C-alpha cells in the first residue's frame, strides 16, 4: 500500500498555490454553509411559479426530530380522504399512534429474527444486519401493514409527546435493550430452552416503556368535531380500524412500489421482494423495478388523475432546505470546490453507496413545458411550514430523474405489460441489497 510522501505534498501545495481562484474561494467557503454559498438564486428562480396541475392539500405537517417521513407521507394521503368524508378544511391523523405500533412490531420482528438465526455466528452477514438495522425509517408497505392491522386515529385522539417528536434518545435506548434481549435469547437457545415465554415478557416490557414515553394507544374513542359549515358531529365508540373503514376506506392493496434502481442486480421489468427487519414479522416489501422514463410517466399520470404520489428520494443531494429547492443546477458544488467532478450514473450512485433514498414526501403538482413534458414538480414535505414555500418544496426534472428512486403508483396506471409482471411470484433479494439505508 502506497503512502502519501513529501514529494506528493509538495506537488499538492504547488497546484493549490498556483490556482488563484482557490485562494479567492477559501475566505468565503470557510465562513458559511456550503449549500448557502453554492445556491444560485437565478437558477432557482427558473423553478418558481405556478404549476400546470396542483392538487388540493390541507396544510403542512411536521415530523419534527424523528425519522417518520415515510409514515407522514402515507398519512398525508389518508388525511385528505378523511377530511373529504368528514367535511373538514383542516385535519391530521396521529403519527404517534402508528409510530407506537411501528416500534412494537419492529421489536417483535427483531426478536423473532434473533431466534430464527440463533445457530448462526454473530459475524454472519444476516445477524450483523439484524443487530444494526433498528431505526425510525421505513417503507410504504410497512405503513400499509400498520394501517391494515391497527387502523388510524385523529391526531387529537393520540397527540404527539416530546418523545414521539424527538425519537433519537429513546430509539437508542430501545436498541440497547433489544441487543441485551438478543444476547439472552441466544444464550437460552444454546442451553436448549424454549425462548418464546421470555420473548413475550420482553415485548411486554417494551410495550410498557413505549406507553410511558408515547402514551397508551386507544382501543376505543369518541370523535367530536364541527365541519367546515359549523355543524356539530359526535362519533361515539369508534375503534381505530372502524375509523379507518368509515372515514378513509382507501384500498391500499391497489398500490405498488415502483422503483428506479438501474443496477446490475436489479434489471428493468423486475418484480421483487425482500423481508425487512424493520417491518412486521409477517411483512414483506414488494417492488416493481422499471426505467426512469416509466417512473416519470407513471407519476405524471397519477398526478394528472388527481392523486398525490408518495415518493422516496435522496434529500441530501443538491437541496436547499430554507428555499425549498432540489436541483443540481441551483447548487453547483463542483464549481465552488475548485472544479470537483461528481459525475456518476444513477446506477453507479447506488452501487457505490453515493446516493440512496433518504426521505419520503408527496408529489402534489407538476408543471408541463410546451411539449407537455414535466419540468418541475411541486412537493408536499413534512418538515413544517417554516422552510421552503410555507412547507412546500419544488424539484427540477433533472433532480427527479437522477435522485428519485421509488414512487407509489395506483395499479390502474400501469400498462398491461407492467401489470402482467405482478402476476408472477416476486423474486427474493436480501434486505441489505434493497438500496434503502
Task: Give a quick rundown of the structure.
The chain has 437 residues and is an alpha+beta fold.
Give the helices and strands, then pairings.
Elements: H1 6-17, H2 20-29, H3 34-38, H4 41-45, E1 53-54, H5 69-86, H6 95-116, H7 125-132, H8 140-150, H9 162-165, H10 168-190, H11 196-214, E2 221-226, E3 232-238, H12 240-247, E4 255-259, E5 270-274, E6 285-289, H13 292-304, E7 309-313, E8 319-320, E9 325-326, H14 333-336, H15 346-351, E10 359-368, E11 374-380, E12 392-396, H16 397-403, E13 404-410, H17 416-421, E14 427-428
Helix pairs in contact: 6-10, 6-11, 10-11
**Total individual domains:** 2
Low-pLDDT sequence parts: none
Q: Can you say what the CATH homologous superfamily of the largest domain is? A: Cysteine proteinases
Task: Tell me the number of helical segments per DSSP (H or I, 4 or more residues long).
Answer: 17
Dominant shape:
globular
Radius of gyration of CA atoms, rounded to a whole number: 24 Å
Average pLDDT figure: 95
Helix content: 40-55%
The CATH class of the largest domain is Alpha Beta
The CATH architecture designation of the largest domain is: Alpha-Beta Complex
Structural class: alpha+beta
Count of DSSP E strands? 14
User: Main β-sheet: number of strands, strand sense, barrel status?
Assistant: 12 strands, mixed
The N- and C-terminal alpha carbons lie at a distance of 31 Å
Measured by DSSP, the beta-strand proportion falls in: 15-25%
Query: Could you name the CATH topology of the largest domain?
Result: Cathepsin B, Chain A
Amino acid at each position: 500500500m502506497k503512502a502519501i510522501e513529501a514529494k506528493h505534498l509538495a506537488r499538492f501545495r504547488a497546484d493549490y498555490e498556483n490556482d488563484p481562484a482557490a485562494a479567492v474561494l477559501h475566505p468565503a467557503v470557510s465562513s458559511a454553509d456550503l449549500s448557502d454559498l453554492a445556491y444560485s438564486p437565478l437558477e432557482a428562480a427558473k423553478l418558481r411559479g405556478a404549476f400546470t396541475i396542483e392538487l388540493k392539500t390541507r396544510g403542512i405537517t411536521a415530523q419534527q426530530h424523528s425519522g417518520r417521513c415515510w409514515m407522514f407521507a402515507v398519512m398525508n394521503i389518508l388525511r385528505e380522504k378523511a377530511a373529504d368524508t368528514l367535511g373538514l378544511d383542516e385535519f391530521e391523523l396521529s403519527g404517534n399512534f402508528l409510530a407506537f405500533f411501528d416500534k412494537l412490531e419492529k421489536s417483535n420482528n427483531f426478536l423473532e429474527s434473533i431466534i430464527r438465526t440463533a445457530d448462526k455466528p454473530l459475524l454472519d452477514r444476516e445477524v450483523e444486519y439484524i443487530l444494526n438495522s433498528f431505526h425510525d425509517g421505513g417503507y410504504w408497505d410497512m405503513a400499509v401493514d400498520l394501517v391494515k392491522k391497527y387502523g388510524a386515529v385523529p391526531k387529537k385522539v393520540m397527540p404527539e409527546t416530546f418523545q414521539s417528536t424527538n425519537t433519537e434518545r429513546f430509539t437508542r435506548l430501545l436498541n440497547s435493550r433489544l441487543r441485551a434481549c438478543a444476547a439472552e435469547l441466544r444464550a437460552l437457545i444454546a442451553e436448549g430452552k424454549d425462548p418464546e415465554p421470555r420473548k413475550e415478557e420482553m415485548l411486554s416490557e417494551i410495550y410498557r416503556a413505549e406507553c410511558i414515553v408515547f402514551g397508551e394507544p386507544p382501543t376505543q374513542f369518541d370523535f367530536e368535531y364541527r365541519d367546515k359549515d359549523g355543524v356539530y358531529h359526535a362519533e361515539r365508540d369508534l375503534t381505530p380500524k372502524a375509523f379507518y373503514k368509515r372515514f378513509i376506506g382507501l384500498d391500499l392493496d391497489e398500490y405498488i412500489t415502483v422503483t428506479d434502481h438501474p443496477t446490475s442486480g436489479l434489471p428493468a421489468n423486475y418484480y421483487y421482494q425482500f423481508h425487512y427487519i424493520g417491518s412486521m414479522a409477517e411483512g414483506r416489501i414488494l417492488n416493481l423495478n422499471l426505467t426512469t422514463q416509466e417512473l416519470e410517466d407513471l407519476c405524471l399520470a397519477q398526478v394528472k388523475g388527481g392523486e398525490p404520489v408518495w415518493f422516496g428520494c435522496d434529500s441530501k443531494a443538491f437541496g436547499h432546505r430554507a428555499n425549498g429547492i432540489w436541483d443540481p443546477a441551483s447548487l453547483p458544488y463542483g464549481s465552488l470546490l475548485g472544479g470537483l467532478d461528481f459525475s456518476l450514473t444513477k446506477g453507479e450512485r447506488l452501487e457505490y453507496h453515493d446516493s440512496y433514498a433518504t426521505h419520503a414526501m408527496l408529489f402534489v403538482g407538476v408543471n408541463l413545458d410546451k411539449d407537455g413534458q414535466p419540468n418541475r414538480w411541486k412537493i408536499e414535505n413534512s418538515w413544517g411550514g417554516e422552510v421552503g414555500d410555507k412547507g412546500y418544496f419544488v424539484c427540477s426534472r433533472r433532480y427527479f430523474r437522477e435522485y428519485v428512486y421509488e414512487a407509489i403508483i395506483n395499479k390502474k396506471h400501469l400498462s398491461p405489460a407492467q401489470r402482467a409482471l405482478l402476476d408472477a411470484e416476486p423474486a427474493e433479494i436480501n434486505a441489505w441489497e434493497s438500496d434503502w439505508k
